[in-house]
Amino acid sequence: MKFTVHGKNTSTVEVTNISSHGFWLLAHGRELFLSYEDFPWFQEQPVKAILNVTEPLTGHFYWPDLDVDLSEEIIEHPERYPHISSQ
Question: Which string of DSSP letters, residue by residue, matches 2-56?
C-alpha cells in the first residue's frame, strides 16, 4: 500500500508558553526561548499576535501581525545581532 501526502504540514511551529520574561517557540522538536530583553518588540503585544507565527522557510519564523521575522540563528544567538527594531 502506498500513502501520499496531500497539502503541506502547517503545524511545524507553535508558541508553547508565554511568561513575563518571554516565550517559547517549538519548531521541529526543538524549543527556542525568546526573552523580552533580547526581543523587546514582543513584550507589549497581545497574545494573539505572538501566537500567530508561521515558518515560510525552514528555520525562518514570521509573525505577520507584528511584521517581525527572525531566523533560528538570530533566536539562538541574539548577542551576535544588534537590535534593528525598537519597541
Answer: -----S----SEEEEEE-SSEEEEEETTEEEEEETTT-GGGTTS-HHHHH--EEE
pLDDT band at 82 (very low <50, low <70, confident <90, very high): confident
Q: Give yes or no for a contact between 26 and 13, defined as CB atoms under 8 angstroms apart.
A: yes
The Cα–Cα gap between 7 and 16 comes to 24
What would the grid cell of residue 3 be?
A: 500513502
Q: What is the pTM of this model?
A: 0.80
Radius of gyration of the chain (CA): 14
> Would you say how long the chain is, in residues?
87
